[in-house]
Amino acid sequence: MKPEPTDRCRKLLEEVSRYLDGDLTAAERRKVGQHLQRCPCCQHMADSLKHTVEACHKAGSARLPADVRSRARARIATLLASGPVPPRTA
Question: How many domains does the chain have?
Answer without folding.
Answer: 1
